[in-house]
UniProtKB/TrEMBL annotation:
<keyword id="KW-0234">DNA repair</keyword>
<keyword id="KW-0255">Endonuclease</keyword>
<keyword id="KW-0540">Nuclease</keyword>
<feature type="region of interest" description="Disordered">
    <location>
        <begin position="127"/>
        <end position="154"/>
    </location>
</feature>
<keyword id="KW-0227">DNA damage</keyword>
<dbReference type="Pfam" id="PF03852">
    <property type="entry name" value="Vsr"/>
</dbReference>
<comment type="similarity">
    <text>Belongs to the Vsr family.</text>
</comment>
<dbReference type="InterPro" id="IPR004603">
    <property type="entry name" value="DNA_mismatch_endonuc_vsr"/>
</dbReference>
<dbReference type="InterPro" id="IPR011335">
    <property type="entry name" value="Restrct_endonuc-II-like"/>
</dbReference>
<keyword id="KW-0378">Hydrolase</keyword>
<dbReference type="GO" id="GO:0006298">
    <property type="term" value="P:mismatch repair"/>
</dbReference>
<protein>
    <submittedName>
        <fullName>Very short patch repair endonuclease</fullName>
    </submittedName>
</protein>
<dbReference type="GO" id="GO:0004519">
    <property type="term" value="F:endonuclease activity"/>
</dbReference>
<dbReference type="GO" id="GO:0016787">
    <property type="term" value="F:hydrolase activity"/>
</dbReference>
Amino acid sequence: MQANKGRDTRPELAVRRAVHALGLRYRVSFRPIPTFRRTADLVFTRAKVAVFVDGCFWHGCPEHHTVSATHARFWADKITRNRERARETNAILQEAGWIVMRFWEHQDPTLAARAVAVQMTSLHRDATAAATESYRSTSPPHRPPRPPERDPHG
């Protein structure tokens, strides 16, 4: 199992390249919550978006996961724990105000990157609208310009 990479896997790199090609910048293998011992594959810190690329074998993909013939009970328990940990991670991050996006390794990296870009664009629009609304509510009301004063001598 030492040969199995925990990060920088081929699917993860493909998603990272596709997201980068769309002009988005992110942190790699980063803890969204520093005191929480879970690392996301891509993290957009300001937007509070954490992206995970889950392996079909390790996370029990419903389409591609196959049950190991050797040590079947061990692997079934391990995959169950991995899935429970992923659900727990989602819940903790969401409770802390993060948006969690998960993609399977078999998904098209370009489509995954587009989904991330749509999420980021949506968040940017919401933040811009909120900032504009905040500015409007704190600025003085608009008044029409005063008409020019008449010259008393003329």
